[in-house]
Protein 1
Amino acid sequence: MYRALYRSYRPARFSDVVGQELAVRVLQNAVRRDRIAHAYLLSGPRGTGKTSLAKIMARAVNCESPVDGEPCGSCAVCLGSGMHTVEIDAASNRGIDEIRDLREKARYAPPEGRFRVYIVDEVHMLTAEAFNALLKLLEEPPPQLLFLLATTEPQRLPPTVLSRCQRLNLRPHREEDVEARLLQVAQQADIAVDEAAARLIARKSDGSLRDALGVLELCAGHADGVVREETVLAAIGALGEEEIRTLLSLTQTGDVPAALAWLGSQEERGADLRLLVADAIDIVRRDLRAAYARRAQAEADEAFRRLESLAKLDAELRRGMDPRLGIELWVAQASAPAPAPQQPVRERAAEPRAPEPPGQEKTAAQAVQTLPAKRPPAATAGRRPQADAPPPGLTPADKDLQSAFLAHVRDVRARAALEHAQLFDAGDAWEVRFRTPPLLAIAQLEDTAQQIREALWRVAGKRPVRFGLWQ
């Protein structure tokens, strides 16, 4: 029967564990010196080897002839059915009844080996009552009992439990370690993969070796021959760096229609838009570091502005925002020109003045009289600025009509664009004027424009609807 790669090539010895030297050294020295604590807490992100280390430790402490702290792999305990080890999934066995049952069984000696080992995975999922029941067992454990707790969220464990365990923090794997392990597993599993593809998988795995092996297995089934970079991109729905830079370039030049058309074509190809945002953040971060290294301040400021807007977009997507809508709004905002920096008043006041010719110095009163008069305000009190005046020949729609119109717009993308728009009555037609060209470009998309027309027709009658800028 076929087994997944991450199961078939799970480490069986401490020396097989990748990238967790500190945790391996602590556990191996504990077995070698016979100084085994009653409870260990293995914490870290997913795919970093917590359960694998716990299983190796369970075999090592009960091995009949360990070699330098390693399980021999040939004795009855190492080859047996594991009667000395009990694995518990705390996500599905999280109540007080399960822990009470564990306490009853923990009093008895193991059927084989020195220790009765309990591996509790996702231990943070236990209820408060279950933790209280487990605490007494951790305070005064029987001599033959060993707990190996694993969790991805150690901050959710009570401090009373944390203080009674030896805590080992497992860090995410380095990309070079993941790449080397992938090439090793591919060779053993007879999978043809080039180094560029292995490097790309390692970068996309986010430090999780299990995720990397899963992607390698997926790509092996997707490829006809050798697994290459394009195979990996197609399998996980990612885009190449050059394609993502195309989007960044279009937003930088302000070509919103081309950027939206590019986005629609990539979605039709099956691209993962959330992964697109994550990859764009990675690219802009590298550009920011490169700009600082070259001391190119203008490029660094632009990269920082883009990185800040992408970080906000990523946070919105994590809160459940629709990826297509979020990226379209980001395109519209990122395409708008950055506000010009204003010179501080203090700097202008500190500019040096040309000295007066000898004999022509002015008194303080004369200097005050020669100051330029203040400019008149752009708009008088009680009058709206010229930028907000209605266009000639158009009458602003009634506020109640505008509110009813917005209430009938169901499309989220259309509503977001209309938040910065004004409805006008042109007599024979309705005109919707937008403040900025990016918002106008979003409203002119075929599906968005149809949503706006239908909502307006329902509340104001069926007349032609035109779109434009409010200038």
Protein 2
Amino acid sequence: MAKKKKSNRPSWDEYFLKLAMLASERATCPRMHVGCVLVKDKFVLATGYNDSLPGQPHCDEVGCLIVDNHCVRTNHAEINALIQATTHGVNVRGATAYITNMSCTTCAKALIAAGIKRVVVFSDYHDTLATEFYSKSGVTIDKLPMPKKTINYDLKNYTSARKTKRSN
């Protein structure tokens, strides 16, 4: 009997956490880059990252606006994901939030109120009551190891693909 080759496929949790990591690359607050992906039935409903309000300056341009050790210039990733979902009429009730970092207290309350049932993170956050609020509200919290930061795409060895020629 032939031995099966081990798959390099990430688990669903790893996959969605890597998408949250990718979303976090759009963040504009230098204090912490956070990404959030809202998922239901293995379907991405919305994404978000910490970023300034539309039309307002970004932290990486004019500096952070700190109040009580929090930057208040930005909306957090969770809030932006919820805003994206509501803007497009997407119901997130019963969804899972994949977040690079544990929520702040305010974001935890927003996710709970929106009906999020599970939160998956790989990093903690200072000064938050999120874990307590999630637990008391029946939201499952899964703290997983951080996924690999690499994307495995081997264009040279895919027999049906070739590198595109750059256009001018």
Protein 3
Amino acid sequence: MTPTALVRALPAAALLLAVTACTQDDASQPSRATQQETPTGSASATPSGRTPAVNIRLTINGHHIAATLNDSATARDFAAQLPLTLSLRDFNQTEKAADLPRELSTSGAPEGADPQVGDLAYYEPWGTLATYYGDAPYHSGVIPIGHMADEGPEQLATADEITIEAVS
């Protein structure tokens, strides 16, 4: 190889060596973004690198209703307050609202939402939990946090109290 060819090939060889070394180091360890700690302390990966949704149980009129919280900052902050027993008041014959012990995080939350029957949401302007038993239009400040099983809205329509617990 001529000296000129060697001078031209040297930067490319150095770059290839650096890229190969970085790739080998990264391949031996899982990405921190895709790890989560399990209750036993071992790491497990989720496809998105986020924590999974939280299963909860609602007790309405003596009936246990399964529900799931989504993986948002607002839902995680709500889950941290559980268990809760809340008094409900009717709003527009479509939802039951309940005052929460404290405001929730709205980091990364949408401007508003079009809640569906069975949805659980945080209404940021009032700092309340909104639980929907009827169809409601889009409203600014509504942040969806979860959804209850099909039988929940029927029970919710006549409820004046709700108990919410995390399910392991």
Protein 4
Amino acid sequence: MNEQQNTTAQAGPAKPRHRADRRFGRTVIGLAAVAGLGLAAWATTANAATSTSTAKATPTCSAGALKAGFGRQLAGGMNHQGVVITLRNLSGKTCALRGYPGLGLENSAHKKLTAHTHWGNTWYAHNPGKKTLTLKDGQSAEAVVAWTHANTGTSGAVRASFLEITPPGSTRHKTLAFPQWVDHGDLSVTALARHIDVTP
């Protein structure tokens, strides 16, 4: 009888220990989950910081790093004319371009002439839109420039000798020979892209 009572008395307190063990286990699991979330958040932040750092590591192409040139000459009816302009990275390093080139006109004495640049679609090509172009050394980006020359030789046209091309994000420009009549000095240009399909 006494042994039975002692056995019963000893078996009774074991239940709270099981409940305590379960509570301890739940606490450990909860802490592990919180720690896991913390590590995941840290990893996400670290990855974001790395991506941002990588993006910032690619500098914008300066005017001095680029060589400007003309590609395909474009012609058509209704006094339309155009040309593909190219900007080639010759810096020896990777750089980036995004957006539209600035344009300007100069006379034979390199004096600025009245000019207006319109960004978007042109007579020859649809605008590809602004995209960040990462150019390795030797790689190029291009844009399509268009204008009309219906008023050649009249006061409604500007007689240009040079074209100024300012890369996006730059305050300096490149200059190319451009002996053209341009109605009212109006030029249309697409955003820069790796390649732009043009209509003949």
